[in-house]
Amino acid sequence: MFDRAEERFGGVDVLVNNAGIMIRKPMIDITDAEFDRQIAVNLTGTFRGMREAARRLRTGGRIINISSSVAAMRSPNYSIYAAGKSAVETMTSVLAKELRGRNITVNAVAPGATATDLFLLDKSPEAIEAFAKLAPLERIGTTDEIAAVVAFLAGPEGAWVNGQTIHANGGVI
Fold first, then answer.
1. Catalytic entry in 12, 20, 49, 81
2. pLDDT of res. 20
3. What is the mean pLDDT of the segment spanning 151-170?
4. CB under 8 Å, gap of 24 or more: what pairs does 6-13 form?
5. For the domain with range 2-168, which CATH number is right: 3.30.70.1130, 1.20.1250.20, 3.40.50.1000, 3.40.50.720?
């Protein structure tokens, strides 16, 4: 991916790590295969993207990782998902410090309930409404709202934000 971007555009300026899967069930029911798959996508994949971006981003670049407000909520049935996203947030702040002097920012965005396929999958309208009521704004977020936070961090306005996790969740945390 980096090779193609460098060939086509002359370099890479921004990486947004946004791949993710969610296995939602009690920890005692999660199989080793489910654990391994979720960690592989949500944590290992993010780590590999961050590592390569740290090696190859141009000066002034941006690394933006997508976490989840679930990491801070510690809700039942989200144990491995929340653990992986917590690790992403930790790696975000550590890499920001490791890139000292390179003028590359590393941040995470932790959306709350957002109208995406990942969030809506297998949820009843009642469950979606219950999630909406958790936030003081009493609704779920939109993909455009999350994209606006990512765009802020990727653009010049976000140049002084570094090593942070921004919770875009309507105030649930």
1. 81
2. 92
3. 98
4. 6/56, 11/56, 11/57, 11/58, 12/53, 12/56, 12/57, 12/58, 12/61, 13/57, 13/58, 13/60, 13/61, 13/62
5. 3.40.50.720
